[in-house]
Design goal:
The protein is mainly alpha-helical. It folds into 2 domains: 103 residues, no CATH class; 221 residues, Orthogonal Bundle (MetI-like fold). It has 20 helices and 2 strands. The chain has a two-stranded antiparallel ribbon.
């Protein structure tokens, strides 16, 4: 006797259920496919491109295809210049680059590693077009004495491979030296480690200030009657409805030495007119403006968690003999830790990547690492260094996120 269960059309029930589950999974995948495609195009591909740009170094080999293979066989340790064949190949490559008007890209790339390379290749590109015949070694050195410097050829050889770690080394104030290998940057070029440290410190300070200011606001919203708290929430959300640029420039008008705050302090006699406070274009301006801008991101998670805490907890603690302040610290505050964690990590991650506000109110001492990433992308056009800085910033955020998860636990973070 066959005990296998079958459906009405004679298909085994187990097979029919498996087919139905496969159809449901396929339908679910089709539903999430647009979202996955959107994330893949707008998030994963840009990150992959950023990673690639941080190590890509194809310009030298592309612009000097004749010279690079010959330099690979040149022994730069003995301290002698390359032979005539290398100089002839360099002349041919520079001439071809000058005619194609692409040689400036090579000079700009090498100028990131050593100052003066851009002018060297521009000058040489103009002169080599008039060279008819060799010897090319003497001709190139006559065009510019730097062609007679072995360090110029060592630099070209060092950065001729298609991939390099030079950008990431520069992002941590190191450099790839043709002779010494990995070495520290010169004293006047060590800026990025200090910028990373400043970014972390100011972001942590802003997070702490938003917690100190946001906690009583959220507590007030959670304990007031619903009608009153809804009105106050509108005031908390009001900055979201105002342009970020408008809010930032408003702080410029308030904090500058001839601004509203200084005028008020002078008017009431707290300050003399000659001793006005410098609160703009420095770290004070960055901290004040960003604390105001990011405050709602701390208040809302705190409020959503506080709203779920039953008032009976505090009444029970007080009725058992606890002082109201002690009951607040021992009973109420621990229940708001998930909201503090959510608001803290949200504000910190947003602060660490801000660049508009620090650029407008931070000056030279209040800018973040993101300001230099934007500078290298839009002005210096050193996309490789910008990509390396961006990757390190992303890695730093992920490391802090994992550290937070290990110490506090992501499961303890709640938005409501």
């Amino acid at each position: 006797m066959n005990s296998t269960l079958v459906t009405a059309d004679g298909v085994p029930l187990k097979t029919s259920l498996a087919r139905a589950q496969r159809r449901e999974k396929a339908a679910s995948l089709l539903l999430v496919a647009p979202l996955f495609l959107f994330i893949f195009i707008t998030f994963l591909i840009p990150i992959a491109d950023m990673l690639l740009r941080g190590v890509s170094n194809e310009i030298v080999a592309e612009q000097m295809p004749r010279t690079v293979p010959l330099l690979a066989g040149w022994d730069d340790v003995i301290g002698e210049l390359p032979g005539e064949a290398v100089f002839a190949a360099a002349v041919a490559d520079i001439r071809a680059g000058a005619r194609a008007k692409t040689i400036n890209r090579l000079g700009q790339r090498l100028n990131y590693e050593r100052s003066g390379m851009s002018s060297l290749f521009r000058k040489s590109a103009r002169r080599v077009l008039r060279l008819k015949e060799g010897p090319y070694r003497e001709a190139l050195i006559k065009i510019d004495r730097r062609w007679g410097d072995i360090q110029t050829w060592q630099l070209i050889k060092t950065f001729s491979p298609p991939y390099t770690g030079g950008y990431f080394l520069a992002a941590v104030d190191m450099r790839l030296d043709p002779v010494e290998g990995i070495a520290r940057q010169q004293e006047d070029r060590r800026i990025y480690l200090n910028l990373f440290g400043r970014t972390l410190w100011l972001s942590a300070l802003i997070t702490l200030l938003t917690l100190l200011f946001g906690y009583p606001i959220a507590y007030l919203l959670a304990t007031l009657p619903t009608r009153t708290s809804n009105l106050l929430i509108i005031l908390v959300l009001l900055p979201f409805w105002t342009s970020l640029l408008v809010r930032t420039t408003s702080w410029v008008a308030l904090l500058q030495q001839e601004g509203v705050i200084n005028d008020l302090l002078v008017a009431v006699g707290i300050l003399d007119n000659d001793s006005r406070l410098a609160m703009i274009h420095n770290r004070i301006g960055t901290v004040v403006a960003m604390t105001h801008i990011l405050l709602p991101f701390m208040v809302l998670p705190l409020y959503s968690v506080m709203k779920t805490i039953p008032p009976s907890y505090m009444r029970a603690a007080v009725s058992l003999g606890a002082h109201p302040a002690l009951a607040f610290l021992r009973i109420y505050v621990p229940n708001t830790v998930p909201g503090m964690g959510a608001g803290g990590i949200l504000v910190f991650i947003l602060a660490i990547g801000y660049y508009i506000t620090p650029a407008l109110v931070g000056g030279s001492s209040g800018t973040f690492i993101s300001n230099f990433i934007a500078y290298h992308i839009s002005q210096s056009l050193n996309w490789g260094l910008a990509a390396a800085l961006g990757v390190l910033l992303l890695a730093l955020v992920l490391a802090l996120y994992l550290l937070y998860d290990r110490i506090v636990g992501i499961d303890n973070m709640k938005l409501g």
